[in-house]
Amino acid sequence: MAGRPLQDCEKLYDEALARFPGSFFAYHLSPNAILPDREKPMELKGIPMHLQKAIIRARLLLGDTRNAYLALDTALRLYPTNISHRLLKNFLIERPITEAYTIYAMAYRAGMNTSGQVFKTLMSSLRLASNMTSIPVHFQVLRAMVSMMYVFVGNSKKIPSNTLAELTIAITHIGLLPGVAAMTQSQRDEIFQLVLDIIKTLWDVGARFQATPTASAFVNIIKNIAAPAQSRSIAENAMADMTALGLEPTEATRRAMMNVAGAIADEEMVHKTWDDIVASRSAKGKRPDLIDLNVTIKAARQVGMKAFIQQQADVAKQYLSSKEQSSIDYYTMGRDEVVPNPELARSTAEEILEGVKRLRADLAIFDEKTKDPSGAMDFSKRPGMLLREPSIFADIPEAEMRKIYDEFTTEQVRKSASSDDRDATFAEHETSQFSPDDTVPDTDPTVPKTDPIVPDPASTTQPDPSTVTPARSMPLSPTGIPLSTLRYESWRAINALLYHSARNDRAHAAAVDVAIWEGRSPPKREMGFTGENLEVGEWGFGGVGLGEWLGEGQEREEDVGARGEEGEEGEEGRKRDGEESKGDVELARGEIGRLRGRE
Known about the structure:
Elements: H1 6-17, H2 25-28, H3 49-61, H4 65-78, H5 85-94, H6 97-109, H7 116-128, H8 135-156, H9 161-172, H10 185-208, H11 215-229, H12 232-244, H13 251-263, H14 267-283, H15 290-303, H16 306-316, H17 322-333, H18 342-369, H19 391-394, H20 398-410, H21 419-423, H22 483-517, H23 531-536, H24 546-549, H25 554-566, H26 570-595
């Protein structure tokens, strides 16, 4: 079906479903199907989930995002603890990272196991989501990576070494953030010492799961921490740790040491490191390449070694191409040095220091929660999402959202969204976050729970065994979450994904239209994580890390109490508040119906 329009795929999908008429599989795979029991696993055998996965992939690839998410919603309703690895990759490739992050978080929190390579691909994508131009964005990406590793470890009980390296490298990139070069030495010392403490904590956690640092992790510590910190000792300690782990220095290691030599303006170290580079290349029958030369010339320029620079440039021009020679000339000519700006340095240092402290708090929680690595973590007491939810949904009380969920999953919605609701502008609802303190109840409140009859310890009369009601065993995920809770959380997360995927698609379509109108090539879809996610504050990673996600809900209770004290007093004020709350619920209900095509 490669290259065929989506309608052909949909037709083939319908024809394939028609081959299974006896058990009503077409009904069970429809977006509006009702489960016989939301608390229990799906007992019907033979549901052709391979067809469902295929149509999800086709819809993603061919741009029907809404129906792809509705099909995913159906799959999670049937099997709340299972998403195929291939589907995870498809969402990561085809959709922005904020959407893919949500799906992976759902999968790992539900207890789904993936290969280390699948997880590594996600962590690499998260690391690259930071464009390194925004300090808040970079720290939120780091906190998202820590949160994702936490839920992955929670059910897999493992940390791949290459994934440990991904997070380590992302942490070292703090040294490359804008404004670091303009800081005073004391400011850099304070920040980089905290960064090294964070990395040590991370590696201690990794060691519990047999994960060891890789050579690339040490290279980035030397290049991104030791060099900006202008610290020979950090570089030498990293080299010593590499040796202790049996890791051999690589070309990248030697180039990183050259960066340090230039940063600390050590002429002798520049000469020695260059000799090491030449000797290593010569042992392989090669000469220093363009990267070796550019790094060395840059370091020598920082030290003021003009004669050395000219000597190496003249030698290199004998075997480099003309294009490569122009690059050498660029580095030989040099560039203007960064002029320190005390005011900028102070504000940058404060911003980075705040981010580092929050990241350190997240790692401290990670460290504490993994002291015993033997068993899977129990996520049943934690909220379902590790990120913000659209405030049009997040501001709705939990009990009211549960009622809406019941309307959509136990019977057809009888009341469609009104035209006023459909036409409403939701801009005013896009500034709040889904409170991580809204812990989802362990059981479905619509199903009465049968309590066992417990004998009174003070009584000498034993109850008749025939009258004792046995405690009902609640089906749980591998991470201790009732299936009814998982289904509710998945439904709620899909609502958020439908909402934001529509926004993302509209923004991309508008950018394409503008480019075509101006005669330019259409832009690529924005796949990374930008400052808009923080500025809007309604979606993504902003303000959400392990510290908030694993909170006990006290902040929300205090906020509610404070609002009660500051709110309007008397019967009239309470009545007006109730009417506004009712209006918000109706607005959310209407929007969910619109997103799900059930107006």
